[in-house]
Design goal:
72% helix, 177 residues, 0% strand, globular
Length: 177
């Protein structure tokens, strides 16, 4: 699937996002109280995305020979840094499009701090680009295990030969939704 088609699919999923009882059971099974508090700061489309990624990670854990519990938690928490962004679906779509068509401009515009419509977009771009590091910092404060912090911090970095299979799986599943 092309990048554009995948982004359109993600937009439609975001607009139609709903949490089911099965989704909530998955969250309750794998996340601690503090982790759930962070998870619930995410907007509904991002929470749904993380649940879908978790399901795919659980499905593929045997193939990658990784621990399913670790992968479920990693998938549920990988976008936790977006919780500090309050990004609208429009801002999220525009940042993703700009990242695809003109990534240098997105990086130039990205700045923390909300305000008028332009500043809100700049803030959304900042969150979009920096959510892995922001999420890792949040997870450190909760006492989450180091491997989950590392997976969160690295999930958008370019793949390397020596990446652990957990990171490879998280990236693969994340790219599917």
């Amino acid at each position: 699937m092309t990048v554009i088609a995948n982004r359109l699919k993600q937009l439609i999923q975001a607009l139609r996002a709903k949490m089911t009882e099965e989704n909530i059971a998955l969250i309750n099974k794998y996340l601690s109280g503090r982790e759930k508090d962070l998870f619930n700061r995410l907007d509904l489309p991002t929470r749904k995305h993380c649940v879908l990624v978790a399901g795919k990670c659980l499905e593929l854990s045997p193939v990658y020979k990784v621990e399913p519990r670790l992968m479920a938690k990693a998938a549920l928490l990988h976008d936790i840094g977006k919780g500090s962004g309050n990004m609208s679906i429009i801002d999220r779509s525009l940042t993703a499009a700009l990242d695809f068509f003109c990534p240098w401009l997105l990086r130039k515009l990205a700045r923390p701090g909300r305000g008028n419509i332009f500043r809100n977009f700049r803030h959304a771009a900042y969150i979009y680009l920096h959510h892995p590091a922001l999420g890792a910092d949040l997870l450190k404060l909760t006492g989450t295990e180091p491997m989950l912090i590392e997976l969160t911090a690295l999930h958008h970095q370019a793949a390397k030969k020596d990446d652990p299979p957990e990171l490879e799986l998280l990236r693969k599943a994340d790219g599917m939704f």
